[in-house]
Sequence to fold (387 residues):
Amino acid sequence: MLAIASESIGRSRPLIDVARELSLNLSHFGSAETLRRLLEGRSRRFVLLGEQDINDEIVDALMPAGEPVRIGLVICADREALRTSNRSRAAAALADYPVVEWISPEHDSDRLGTALRKCRRRMLKLGKAELENALLQREFILQYQPKVERSDGAEWKTREVEALIRWIHPEHGLLGPLEFLPEAEAFDLIGPVSEFVLNEACEQALRWAEQGLELRICINLASSQLNNPVLTHNFRRIVKRHGLECARFTFEVTEQDVANSAAPHLLVLNELREHGFRISLDDFSAAVSSLGTFEQLPFDEIKIHAAALERARENPVALKVLAAVTGLAHNLGISVCAEGVEDQETYAFLKTIECDKMQGYLISEAVMPDIIRRVYKAASDSTANVA
Fold:
């Protein structure tokens, strides 16, 4: 899918990061005429505008003969300020666009990514029957992102992968999980989808085992599933049916899912652990307020959010906090994984906080199962030969 960004937005790091995360082909335009050319055809696209692009020429390019082009529109501008400016008429025309999201000019990757995902979901308009048919026709697939862990000495080895669901949609092509899982939850289909993921992961583990690959598999667990009283029973049944051990699988839950120590879903997590499954705390912020989560449930792993790593690199106090959190985790027998590792600088920084594992585009993006074989036995004291 194509994202067409105005030169006024530039080639910012947030834009590049989000384009890569959402698998978007990125193009830029500097004039209304170039925009018109890039909009030719019927394929779905995004257009990203800055404040200086709010003018009559751009409106005409986006709405030829008064009919909107089929795109998702993201406007990085102060909407209120535009209403009282000489661009108010153009801003009002764009505000009525069928699929439009407004974000601040000072946006980050999270805000931009959220806006683009909202646009894409509104453009897709998925229905319950469509999702049910996708399960029936097995249109979903799993890709796997390797995690490398430190072994003896400075060696890093691939011993674990994260399973990530994708949908090969017959009309829209490859869709990421954030484009259809919210609908799956809304239509009460997240249970069947979760069981599909675990079943597929079990079958893949057996295929890898036949090739001599012994890999643990991590699976993201939707927060709505944490209130399912038969979740552990269902998951254990699937794993045992394949002749595998529950300890082969780790379920990842986000920090916000366990923020309330009185929430009933902590019983489900404890039950999963009692039957041998491992639990990982995803998107851990490493803030002081996060430390209480260690008391609620003895996690097997915490995954340090990329934003926390960036703060620690730039702020000596944040570095000390992160190092203290890592030390506390190790004292409690909890492993520490850095996620979102994308450059050699971050990789080198991880030595200062003694991370056990790392995951990110520097190692590998999510790939099809057969590619995992290439990184399984890779070992190095540098990331150059890990992926």
The longest strand covers residues 156-169. Residues 378-387 have pLDDT under 50 and may be disordered. Residues 190-210 form the longest helix (21 residues).
